[in-house]
Amino acid sequence: MSTSNRMYLTGDQAVARGALEAGVAVATGYPGNPSTRAIDFLLPHAHKGSLYAEWSVNEKVAVEVAAGAAWAGQRSLVAMKMSGLNVAADSLLSIAHSGTRGGLVIYVADDVNAYYGMVEQDSRYYALMACLPTLMPADPQEAKDLARFAFQLSEVVGTPILLRSTTNIANAFQDVTVEEPQALIREATFQRQPEIYTKAISSWCVTQHQNALERLSQVASHLGPLNPLKIAPSSPYGVIACGLPWQYLQEVVSSWGIALSTLKVDSFSPLPEDKIAALLREVKDVLVLEELEPLVEDQTKKIAWERGLSPRIRGKGDNTLPRTGDYSLEMIAGALGKMLNRAPPPRKQEEVLQRARTLSVARKLEFCPGCPHRVTYYAINQAIEQLGLPREETITTGDIGCTIIGMSEPQNTCWTEVAMGASIPLAQGMKLSGIDRPLLAAIGDGTFYHAGIPGLLNAVQSGVNLTIIVMDNSYIAMTGHQPHPGTGRNPLGEKRPTADIVSLALACGVQHVTPVNPFRVTATVEAIERAIKYPGVAVVVAQAECAYTDRRFHLPYRVKEGRCPADKSCGVACLYQVGCTGVEERDSGAVILEKQCRGCGLCAAACPHNAIGRDYSWPTVKQAASRYWRSRGSRTIVPMEH
Amino acid sequence: MTNLVIVGVGGQRVITLGNLIARCALEAGLTVRGHAQSSLAVLGGSVTYHLRLGPSYSPFVPHGQADVILALELAETLRAVPYIKDGGLALVSEDKKAPMNLILSHAHYPTPEEVAQIYRHLGARFILLPKENQKTQKGRALPEAWRLLGVMSAVTSFWSRKKIEETIAAYRPREASLNLAAFRRGYQLAQEIEAKAAASSPIEKAASAGK
């Protein structure tokens, strides 16, 4: 949404907008919250000619595509979450040492506090490792401005730029002042310079490393008004802050009406060492505010030592602030109050707040009503039981994405989650270690394309006995239904060839591949049983579209009158074994909520009394039909509006 | 400076509602900051939307400074407790979306009275919207988010009713008639609640007793 030159944008949309204003020609990325909306924002613009945007097959590929375009002289953006940067790291370091011609900006969002799962990591370490200049915005406006500036900086100095944000900046909204997007018309050229673009000779590699360090020091002289330093001569206190904590600091300082010396660190690499020293000279006591690792804090201590300055430096080193989780306004106020000897405000009504906390409901991950994965996990559990294997001893390794919800109750199937595609090699390792019980690996379709295939090849070559369940719901669903090579369409809805998982598994050398429709529960259970019994690597591909996008006509289920016994001798299997919020337990027995039911039929399959069936009553059929016709208009997945 | 916190679960249009309110504020010439935290799950996870209308630095509402809390789900209302201002307003839908882990463990789901008590202890006005099964002529249920917005626009005076209706109509033209119907129903409901409050209904009596 926009009013004149203001747009209401999130932090990651703002990065994308900045790239548009800088004339980005190629944008790549892999979905992963909190960075997903950057590419989502650019996709509608990719219709209009001078921009190409894609969801790449994984982050390493995304970085390589973007670097290729940048080396040929175009401006390119690549966006990912912090875990993606680990996947891309090999290419990232190599590209950083080579440098770039066209502007290359790598946008990474660190999920501080791990709101979206995975390791809570500080990607700024990559800046140190790869000699990468790194900018850190504090709010969406800065995210837009810094993204735009990063492209210029990248071309002036000839280095890729890391733009690092965090969850709470990526998810923050602000009315951002924007300028017109521009289209740069550039002729793509690429000169053969093996001493820059290859790593074949050791002396070239060392020179590239030297050049990368040289470029890093050049960046320092191009930063202009970044890293603003404000000295308050009346105050012996100072604060160094970067990222969102800077905004918290401003909020606290303005509400308290105090004056402090402050340094806002916009560029983590290279760090504004002289400005830090200038601040340290003016104050007796300084607080460093940064989320996650104490990198700026440790550098500040180093600078103080090198220049013989000895103010007290507070932060994570003296346990004023934690090294894990995200900061909040209240934490910053507390830390600042401690330094200024300001008594904390009396916490009124603490017992009421405590009562609210005890009453509040924790929400674990659960499958949506109608999800095909729920049926597949139910079938896995059934197959294990029917083969007489103890459920609590049968290992199923899990993987990233919606499929990991199989670790939740009541499925309780998945045992592990490591990284994209790790389920298959982990299971192989456990098998090789001597576990002779059947071992399963559960992996989603997006994850399989991303990093599952090498693991599968490896497992086949090792000759272990392993059952792999690939759950194919046609999308990278968890992050908002981005397409993958099996979807058959690109993000703009244009037709593309489909990479079929069954053929891929066969091509990897798997001898036993069974495609199944998970909604046929009995057939799926049988297929999984056969796969478990098969000596060697067996793959079952459960193919059914995500319930969220599936717009096929479906009739809801209902409990047949008088068939559900009120004594509940079955333990209400339709609820407690299925785990669907569409089923409700009442005194009289189970009830299916028509509004929630997506017609997957798992409750009917689980019911031992055969008391659940499709609802063929005329009002229901009529309503289902009207729902079907209405939904036909909204078949395409539209990226989040802005 | 007006601070709002909207809470609910995935699929209830928390973010859509927040974006619409932000748009009303932007069109009124205010600066806006906000923050939307959704969950990993596509449906059913906690969603919180902070909105700060007017000059601010932090995207989050400071503790004890929210003028209005809009809750689309009853239990989620408790997540917003630290933010409510003394004398603030909590508009709470009676919708219950109990998570599967709660159902499976037979744990306690808070009652409206328990939630109301907490807000009244903190000196806030607590309005619980009764469940209604009103549907449009085509049999579609009225979206709760817009009903809540209708109530808010009647109880508070941030923008005129006409202004909000125009914004709703322009925001998602395809769903405009449905959303407007829900908004108007909410507006009407609020007027009924206020009229009852004037005649000292139990809701308002208890609210004033808590103050």
Can you describe what's shown?
The complex is a heterodimer of chains A (642) and B (211). Chain A is of the alpha/beta class. Chain A has four domains: 2-220, 3-Layer(aba) Sandwich (Rossmann fold); 229-339, Rossmann fold; 372-543, 3-Layer(aba) Sandwich (Rossmann fold); 557-632, Alpha-Beta Plaits, CATH 3.30.70.20. Chain A is 38% helix and 16% strand. In chain A, the strands form six sheets. Chain A has a seven-stranded mixed sheet with strand order 4-3-5-6-8-7-13, with helices on both faces. In chain A, strands 10-12-11-14-15 form a five-stranded mixed sheet, sandwiched between helices. A five-stranded parallel sheet of chain A has the order 16-17-18-20-19, with helices on both faces. In chain A, helix 11 crosses helix 12 (295-306). Chain A starts with a strand and ends in a 10-residue tail after the last helix. Chain B has one domain (2-210): 3-Layer(aba) Sandwich (Pyruvate-ferredoxin Oxidoreductase, domain 3). Chain B is built from seven helices and six strands, in the order βαββββααβαααα. The model of chain B has no long low-confidence stretch (mean pLDDT 89). Chain B has helices spanning 14-27, 100-105, 112-121, 144-155, 161-171, 176-198, 202-210; strands at residues 2-9, 32-37, 46-53, 66-71, 84-93, 125-129. Chain B is globular, with a radius of gyration of 16 Å. Chain B has 211 residues and is α/β, with parallel strands linked by helices. At the A-B interface, strand 2, strand 9, helix 10 and helix 14 of A face helix 1, strand 2, helix 2 and helix 3 of B. Strand 9 (172-177) of chain A pairs antiparallel with strand 2 of chain B.
